[in-house]
């Protein structure tokens, strides 16, 4: 009868150990009580003795693997006896226990009842996918199937970071270039402002509203973002330490005033959406944030920040971008300018690590020309 | 603003409450005897000079007597602050605490209040099994008792004042390695944190926890000494790129659940550290609460770091293994990552 080789409990507080070495290989003969494998605890390396004599079979843990206490790492099959045909690697925890056959009622149990159903991480069933609740919630929300994603979490489970990595890739957020920045120049912001003739901007809004579209002033700059940033691609960037990453896809964090201050949820899939759908998506996101329902993932992945004043808001906004984001665009309310025509003030605040003054001014000019002529980009 | 140890801050809080309210008095073993230590850990040292032996009342060595006198006085209009030399001795007064004090307000339909404070030192400090247990979690399982566990001098004074003014029985658990007791009562291996304590009146509300260290990757919840073990582990882990948030609930009953839940919703990972025994313990309750109320925010299994299910050992080498160390906390945190 085959005997299970289990990881013994070592100490009172250790649940997992590292199997550092096998002293016998699969198929080799082992003698009861001879050192069979070694495990490392936080204090020492211990040799574990073979529980029986026979041939070492079904080795499931490799050297260097983490193994759970009481997990089965191999079996010892008596010499001459073939490997057990069933060799259940480890019953999935969810499967129903097999009731004992009635005809066997008198036969003594030959395996420790406690040992057989225990599934350790190291012997986990390759057919089962483990995913953390947090990762699953995110994947479901993004309609992302998680089969085939490599898990990097405990026990090989798929965790949030794995899903986020796939989402990044799927969204085609292609890295255009990485610039190394001298750390000595880090810190501080450049900002530039310009007044833009908002006659056409206001006219477009009025036309759409007259047509019954639920569109607010804040929606138009979002819809215009791809075109506006086409003339200023370098400010669609993130900064980590001294690394600047310029991105092709545009993902604006939108400034939302809440009781806890300004929050920066991220509007995804900007390009290719109609202004109406974009407005609906923005409204849903803002509601989620204001009602405190927004998941942490909603605040990740921004490449630029945009904040637009409410119709009764300030004439000018100079938002500081959220951490890691290189630039923020502030759009003041549409007001009556000096010339008597509608005007709005645009302010671009850029991390000093990202660009010098002149490029900031050029970028602002490019953005301003698009906001002044909105239909050019939507026709 | 003065810098104080926890023992000094408690003394200051008691002094101010006794000056403010003539119904407040202290009772306990050797808390005011001339030439004594001022209780087992110097908290009441010198108070009898100001308030006399009527209000700093030395009792016989009888915990059941202390509890009975304190509860009876509280029911009849006084606000006693009772002192046990070691938290372990609370077990001597279980009927009075659990069956009388905790239930009186409920059973009288709210007509009888028991505004009693009971202070009890806890923690394993090389004194063997009967002078070492961490019983704060044990008493969270008795409805009707409020349980507080200050880990800084500021909180010690503020929570003591809140406890004195509360109309319910409040148990204050104080860790022997945090007191900063001096002279003959100083403890080997003590941390004795010294902190700023404002002069005069302030209250730390019962039921409000605090973030001791902000972080984004994992939430560590600790209390009393294990707050410091968690902070030490957080420093170790910061060097490895793991950013820990450390939460000190300060009050165990009622618990500031929202603070813990909010943190776990952010970090997705939870490690609870306690000096209490593991099974059916406080960490288990925090873990269950998070599993029920923030399950879909979890990115890793919840981990507990506790004392094993044995009485605190006397042998120093065994005791060192019994009390959760920063290394054990760090190992538990690492296991939350792949």
Structure in words:
The complex is a heterodimer of chains A (379) and B (338). Chain A is of the alpha+beta class and 379 residues long. Chain A has seven helices and 19 strands. The longest helix of chain A has 16 residues, at 275-290. Chain B is α/β, with parallel strands linked by helices. Chain B has two domains: 2-197, Thiamin diphosphate (ThDP)-binding fold, Pyr/PP domains (Rossmann fold), CATH 3.40.50; 210-334, Rossmann fold (3-Layer(aba) Sandwich). Helices cover 35% and strands 19% of the residues of chain B. In chain B, helix 4 (94-107) links the parallel strand 4 (79-83) and strand 5 (117-122). The radius of gyration of chain B is 19 Å and the shape is globular. The termini of chain B are far apart. The chains are: A alpha+beta (379), B alpha/beta (338). At the A-B interface, helix 1 of A face helix 10 of B.
Question: What order do the helices and strands come in, and which of them pair?
Answer:
The complex is a heterodimer of chains A (379) and B (338).
Chain A (H helix, E strand, L loop, with lengths): L2 E4 L9 E7 L6 E2 L4 E6 L4 E5 L4 E4 L8 E3 L3 E6 L55 H9 L18 H11 L4 E6 L8 E9 L1 H12 L8 H12 L6 E4 L2 E5 L4 E3 L1 E3 L2 E3 L11 H16 L13 E5 L18 E5 L3 E2 L5 E10 L5 H16 L2 H4 L1
Parallel strand pairs in A: 13-16, 16-17
Antiparallel strand pairs in A: 1-8, 2-4, 2-7, 3-6, 4-5, 6-8, 9-12, 10-19, 11-12, 14-15, 17-19, 18-19
Helix pairs in contact in A: 1-2, 4-5, 4-6
Chain B lengths: L1 E3 L1 H15 L3 E5 L18 H9 E3 L4 H13 L3 E5 L10 H14 L9 E6 L23 E3 L4 H13 L4 E6 L19 E3 L12 E4 L4 E4 L3 H14 L5 E5 L2 E3 L3 H11 L2 E8 L4 H12 L9 E5 L8 H7 L3 H9 L4
Parallel strand pairs in B: 2-3, 2-4, 4-5, 5-7, 6-7, 10-11, 10-13, 13-14
Antiparallel strand pairs in B: 1-8, 6-12, 9-11
Helix pairs in contact in B: 1-5, 3-4, 6-10
